[in-house]
Design brief:
The chain is α/β, with parallel strands linked by helices and 238 residues long. Helix content is 38%, strand content 22%. Strands 1-2-4-3-5-6-7-8 form an eight-stranded mixed β-sheet, sandwiched between helices. Helix 6 links the parallel strand 6 and strand 7. Helix 4 crosses helix 5. The longest helix has 21 residues. The protein is globular, with a radius of gyration of 16 Å. The chain starts with a helix and ends with a helix.
């Protein structure tokens, strides 16, 4: 299910980006934005390029500005995928960073957020991160979920979802093509789970994070997806 699209167009990583700060949360370097006083938390789980991507941190700041305490942990332990390492292609890198490990790590973050007083938690996962979030959704450790251009997510995963979930896919996505996203939609519609499924026309895998800030059309598409994320969390994380 993974392919060149998943690893293409890498962002320019910037450890100093964002209006928030990095702190240790449950043993993970974590980008944090917003105030815990709201008691409403959002976990953002990155794509394969990791938590230092500037557009991911911009999104975290945007969600925080809407009243949420947002955390973006480094589930890759300082080892995000690097596309220009021919000796360590994706097939090798992923062996060290299976989403199953990310799921176990995410449970530690959820526990830490609850210990800090968070009363309601949402989670959004991008590409690799979507598989982590779908696993959280199957055991109802959060209140709401969003998956964006998911990687490794299967029909059986969707059948196991136990909480409100939004799925945002792209028209041009070889990783999770529109046909698969429509299958997800059909399964969710037949279940009792609240859901929102949308396929973005003229967009490709990774469009929500790996967009060119100087491309007005790309920015508008990403902004639309970010608006959908916010609306979903505002509705269900309360």
């Amino acid at each position: 299910m993974s392919g060149p699209q998943c690893c293409s167009n890498p962002p320019a990583v910037d450890p100093a980006s964002g209006a928030g700060h990095v702190e240790n949360l449950a043993g993970f370097n974590t980008y944090v934005s917003g105030s815990l006083q709201s008691k409403l938390a959002v976990l953002l789980v990155s794509d394969v390029f990791g938590y230092e991507a500037p557009n991911l941190r911009k999104l975290a700041d945007k969600v925080a500005a809407a009243g949420f305490y947002v955390v973006v942990p480094d589930f890759f332990y300082g080892d995000p995928y690097v596309s220009d390492k021919p000796d360590r292609p994706f097939t090798v890198w992923i062996k060290d960073h299976a989403p199953a490990k990310g799921f176990e790590d995410a449970k530690l973050i959820i526990d830490a957020l609850k210990s800090k007083g968070a009363s309601s938690i949402g989670a959004a996962g991008f590409c690799w991160g979507a598989k982590v979030v779908i696993e959280l959704s199957k055991v109802a450790l959060i209140q709401a979920a969003v998956m964006l251009h998911p990687l490794f997510v299967t029909v059986d995963d969707i059948k196991g979802v136990k909480l409100p979930i939004a799925i945002l896919g792209a028209e041009f996505d070889n990783v999770s093509p529109p046909e698969l996203i429509k299958q997800f939609d059909d399964i969710l519609k037949a279940s009792k789970v609240d859901s929102f499924v949308k396929i973005f026309p003229n967009c490709a895998h990774g469009w929500t994070l790996r967009y060119d800030v100087d491309d007005a059309t790309a920015v508008a598409c990403a902004d639309e997806a970010h608006k959908d994320i916010l609306e979903w969390f505002t509705k269900y994380v309360k």
